[in-house]
Amino acid sequence: MSEIVLKVEDLHTSFFTRSGEFRAVDGVSFHVREAETFGLVGESACGKTVTGLSILRLLPEPAGKIVSGKITLDGTNILELSKKEMRAYRGAMISMILQDPMTSLNPVYTVGNQIAEPVRQHQRIQDKNMVEEKVISALRLLRIPAPERRLQDYPFQMSGGMRQRVVGSIAMSCYPRLLIADEPTTALDATIQAQYIALFKDVQKETDVAIIFITHDFGVVANMCHRVGVMYAGKIVETAATSTIFKAPRHPYTNALIHSVPRLDRKDDRLYSIEGQPPSLLNLPPGCRFAPRCPDVMDICNEQQPQEVEISEGHSVSCWKVK
Amino acid sequence: MPEKASDSETTARPVVSGLSRRARIMRRLTFIVPVTILSLMIIMAIFADLAWLGLPDVGLAPYDPVKMSLPDRLMPPFWDEEGSTEHLLGTDKMGRDILSRLIFGARISLSVSLLVILITSFVGTVLGILGGYLGGRTEAFLMRITDISLAFPPILVAMLLAVSMGPSFVTVVLAISLLGWAAYARLIRGETLRLRQMDFVAQARIIGASPLRIMLRHIFPNVINPLIIIMTLQIGLLIITEASLSFLGVGIPPPAPSWGNMINDGRNLVDTAWWISTFPGIAIALVVMSGNFFGDWLRDKLDPRLRQL
Q1: Which residues of B touch A122 (CB under 8 A)?
Q2: What is residue B53's DSSP assignment?
Q3: Which fold has domain A4-93+176-190+203-318?
Q4: For residue A50, what are the CA distances in angstroms to A60, A230, A300?
Q5: Which chain B residues are Cβ-neighbours of A87 within 8 angstroms?
Q6: Contact yes or no for B222 and A107 at CB 8 A
Q7: Is A68 within 8 Å of A108 (Cβ atoms)?
């Protein structure tokens, strides 16, 4: 099996606000291998994005803090790096794509100029032609047609799908080891979404980049991810290979999520939905966080947190039902 | 994809042509008239004489602005029966040519405004971006100073400074600049607060840009538009402030002409020699109005949020 690029161990990230400590990420562990895509799935505000930002160490300051845990990239614990060393990692070793392509490009610079920024900064190339070459190859990597002409374009001259490719080019321009994609397809329409996902599979094949794909869309997961971690209220409740998740989900939350995806091959009168709301991160229940909404709840679920159990290779679940 | 880009361009255009013909002419006029007036004033200021080219005897001003000639005192403008074409706009109580003083006054009044604008916009932009981007204590500290500066009456502070340092060109510039930066700092900080929430700033952090780099490269270019807009809108305010200081006798010291101290010169003679105060008054009004109109026009042109309305 290929090398492990990123390993996150027992990560705790909190936001300290006037009303108390929000435990946005509460003991998350997972790893991603070279040329592998790991999906982080869950509903809004379950801690997916905060996990991604923790890996980049770009939490909104001063409220957000990594409380404990270990994040290892190629053997280096990045939580021990100085601010300056961390800046040298960002863009060069770890990169991220944000959700909305309409706002993630600076309106006053040309596309070429914006892709050149990380190249100049991290690879210390001053020669104009060399930089341009790198920029063009980054555009080409993301299959942007006629890259030589596109260099001089401003973001407003491009469509949403094209802009999101440019954002991808910026992220990939220094060939990072790890790419965090935070719902990069949410703002795109369905056909462009499919194109973008296919594109990323190609990019991964060419560069062996490890990808963390943050999404709430199980359709995207099925297309894109090799393995999946399902998050609920700051914890990963189930980790497994994508095919296992779909065929044999063991956690009731995973099961419920998959059931709430509309399907063409079944005739349902009403779409399944999970009752209730996720718990407030300010005062979490003492037991399993899903217990108040769980259809299979038992007495112990309300009292004690379930431990993670590996039920088969690469398939771990945190649920009292699973023994 | 290229077709798409041109598509969005053609759909963005018709907003302007949707205006009626009359409205379009008016809009054009509110640009042409103020720009013409401002350009004339600037040309007047630059070419009042050519001493800076080593030719003190050549220039637009017909006379030396400080040369007194008592036999010619209090001559009315040329269209008056007692006036003469030798002194087109008449002379003051010391026989100095009003037109020449007006032309040289433009030089002083405009250069005070320009210097003040440069100083205040620079200081205000630096402090505004620092405060807005860094946040926390830096922001709290800078913004309290800004609030305090905005709370002082500028004329009184300028008077205090002018009195303690003695009136001179430098004093006037410093006195007006001392509090003038606060308005810029306020606005730029607000813009920076908005910009730093934008995804492209997050994206810059993601690729490893340092805070200094983000402020210079990603925030600053995006605040230039509002910056230019208030810079032009400030022209009027500054001309008036300078004139007020000079009128009160704490501005540009006589005999050097500034529009403010020219009005002051004619203050006691308004009923007999109205022309001494009136012409500089008209000049001030023209520049102030032109500055404001031009500023408004620029705002409509440059501010994308207003453009869409």
Answers
A1: 208
A2: G
A3: Rossmann fold (3.40.50)
A4: 10, 14, 29
A5: 208-210
A6: yes
A7: no
A302: phi then psi, degrees, rounded to nearest 5: -80, -10
The two structure tokens encoding residue A119 = 């190249």
Contact residues on chain B for A100, CB-CB shorter than 8 A: 199
Interatomic CA distance for residues A68 and B157, integer angstroms: 54
Domain ranges of chain B: 63-307
Spatial CA neighbour of A292 closest among A281, A302, A283, A282: A302
Give dist(CA B167, CA B256) in Å, integer. Answer: 12
A136-188 pLDDT per residue, tens: 999 999 888 888 888 888 888 888 888 999 999 999 999 999 999 998 888 88
pLDDT tens for chain B, residues 1 to 309 = 344 444 444 444 444 556 678 888 887 888 899 999 999 999 988 888 887 777 777 777 788 788 877 787 777 788 877 777 778 888 888 888 888 898 988 888 889 999 999 999 999 999 999 999 998 899 999 999 999 988 988 788 888 888 888 888 888 898 889 888 999 999 999 999 999 888 899 999 999 889 999 999 999 999 988 898 888 888 888 888 888 888 888 888 878 888 888 888 888 888 888 888 899 999 999 998 998 888 888 877 776 554 443
Least CB–CB distance from A122: residue in B205, B208, B218:
B208
Residue in A with minimal Cα distance to B223: A108
Which of B62, B60, B24 is closest to B40 using CA atoms?
Answer: B60
Percent with pLDDT over 70 in chain B? 92
Q: Would you say A316 and A306 are in contact if contact means Cβ atoms under 8 Å apart?
A: no
Nearest CA in chain B to A57: B206
The long-range contacts involving B4-12, CB below 8 angstroms and separated by at least 24 positions, are B4/A159, B5/A153, B5/A157, B5/A158, B5/A159, B8/A156, B8/A157
In the sheet that A227-232 helps form, which strands lie side by side, from edge to edge? A94-97, A178-182, A210-215, A37-41, A227-232, A235-241, A315-318, A308-312
Q: Two tokens at A37?
A: 């895509």
What CATH code would you report for B63-307?
1.10.3720.10
Rg (CA), chain A: 21
Number of A–B residue contacts, CB under 8 Å: 73
Q: Where are the domains of chain A?
A: 4-93+176-190+203-318, 108-175
| 8 Å CB contact of B207 and A117 | yes
Asked if B178 contacts B157 with a C-beta cutoff of 8 angstroms, the reply is yes
| DSSP-assigned states of every residue in B197-232 | TSHHHHHHHHTT--HHHIIIIIIHHHHHHHHHHHHH
- The upper half-sphere exposure of residue B139, i.e. CA atoms within 13 Å in the direction of its Cβ, equals 13
Q: Do B208 and A62 touch (CB under 8 A)?
A: no
Residue with tokens 């040289």: B104
Q: Looking at the complex, does the CB of residue A264 fall below 8 Å from at least one CB of chain B?
A: no
Contact check, Cβ <8 Å, A91/B222: no
Query: Which residue among B5, B203, B210 sits closest to A104, beta carbon to beta carbon?
Result: B203
Residue type, A100: D
For residue A156, what is the nearest residue in chain B, using CA coordinates? B5
Task: Give dist(CA B307, CA B171) in Å, integer.
Answer: 40
Q: Helix (H, G, I), strand (E, B), or coil: what is residue B91?
A: strand
pLDDT, tens digit, 9 for 90 and up, residues B80-138: 777 777 788 888 888 888 888 989 888 888 899 999 999 999 999 999 999 999 988 99
